[in-house]
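Researcher: Please predict.
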Amino acid sequence: MPKPTDIRILDVHYDFEEHQYRTPLKFGGVPTDHCVLFNVHIQVQTRDGKEAEGKGSMPLGNVWAFPPRYAPFDQSLAAMKKLAELAVTATQDCGLCAHPLELSEVLEPEFLQIADELSDAMQLASPMPKLCTVVTTSPIDAAIHDAFGKANGINSYDGLGKDFIEADLSHFLNEQFTEKYLDQYTARQPKPNMPLYHLIGALDPLTDADIAERLNDGLPETLPEWIVADGLTHLKIKLNGDDLAWDVARVLAIDNVTAETQAKRGVDTWHYSADFNETCQDVEYLLAFLNQIQDAEPAAFQRLAYIEQPTDRDLKSHPENKMHKAAEIKPVVIDESLTDFETFLLAREQGYSGVALKACKGQSQALLMGAAAAEYDMFLAVQDLTCPGASFLHSAGLAARIPGVTAIEGNARQFCPSANDGWRDEFPSIFDITDGTVGTHVLTAPGLGHFF
């Protein structure tokens, strides 16, 4: 049955925006020094004639979504930009009047088809992976959700129940979700504040001794400086995954520096996450890593909250990478592998015990995977794609509305702070971190929670 709140797309505009990184970020073994934002504006109209403009923004994180091992950096970025342009045209041509989840269900197969055709036309070294397509088109999905809320005069998270969409979650997931809707898995008010996970990249200096020449740009440069300036209690550690001795030593060095700094601050509780970005050859590497950390420094082991995607993202090609033993020790979170409900179920079967939600995979998918994770009682986290400005507001709003998420990663303030210029003045509680937390209480406006 049609709903008066359903929306149709009237017009779509977009632009690209480039920002240089302050310092290189080593990602999955590949350093990167800039980002390209894909910004989308969508004008919609409800069945009862109300109009509004929704906006979405996200970095085209090609090093993560379409890594150099699949295609050279310049080629993958060019492909994502072209896909973005073609996806805008397809969105403009969409004649469906429906709920954002239903629009996403129709548009995503079109985007995937466009990506396949583009892969052939551009003679890409490898076809665009599905992850690449969902990342590229995520600002479109965000703008649709944002416009839906604004057109109906509500926060978008308040438009997820049966009053707004006829199909229950069994239509999008499986029969276990019969007569269940997304409003049962999301909060009507955002969490007031959330701890911020600060990223420690593999190239990042820990102490003054690690810096050959300081930037002297007014921002912290060493780990103690960041901890003191931002009041940090949550640290995400990037690891190499191919050098066990280095990975263990890196964690122990970070723990030593952090413990000394926190003692001076009078802080006795803090947390780590460890992200291998799928670089471990097998789960035995991860088990050895955990055992050596526990033996060398039990306190550091206790502070380790969870592990992110330790082995290859292609779960079907690597069924041997079972995570059951590791997940008995610490939550093991699926990230790069998660592109739909099928991969969610496969990850559970292979022993993953947690899910990393990301705004860059699309608002619709993030909501659906968040509901699936909650229903199956899995660990939940919201992770970053070095999201600045509007994209970080989107990510923070998502984390604040999913009940099981306890912290949020945000590292654009470290690597491309210039992209946050202007946003700090509008949303100081989100972008000015002083007590280690992001003030998500402000994300209550119509749409996705923020005006921009």
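Model: The mean pLDDT is 97.
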